[in-house]
Amino acid sequence: MYRDSISKLDILYMTRVQKERFFSEDEYLRMKDYYILNKEKLDFAKSDMYVLHPLPRNNEIAADVDDDPRAKYFEQVHNAVFVRQAVILTLLKSAGTL
């Protein structure tokens, strides 16, 4: 099922299964480990596909994916620091604080 889908993707954006979105604890527990990206699934993806994630992660991405060159979530989080700095600087300048 995932093989057909993942093979067509340029970017796979992963997030955690959010407990607060479920009506019951049982429903959450049934689904929380359903969508996990691991090396085996990644083998069916394009060689130039990017895997993104906002971090922190729970278990939705297996640790064996971290060393894959397609795993860009650590770089994504690093670059987000500079984006936040630019936004804050822009807001401070527009408020006349700088």
Short synopsis of the structure:
This protein has 98 residues and is mostly helical.
Shape: flat
CATH fourth-tier homologous superfamily:
Aspartate/ornithine carbamoyltransferase
Characterize the largest beta sheet: strand count, sense, and whether it forms a barrel.
2 strands, parallel
Structural category is mainly alpha
| Low-pLDDT ranges | none
Distance between the termini: 54 Å
Name the strands of the widest sheet in spatial order.
1-2
* Rg over alpha carbons: 17 Å
* Strand proportion: 5-15%
β-strand number: 2
Number of domains: 1
State the CATH class: Alpha Beta
Could you please say which CATH topology applies here?
Answer: Rossmann fold
Helix and strand string, N-terminal first? HEHHEH
Separate helix tally: 4
CATH architecture descriptor text: 3-Layer(aba) Sandwich
Mean residue pLDDT: 94
Helix content: 25-40%
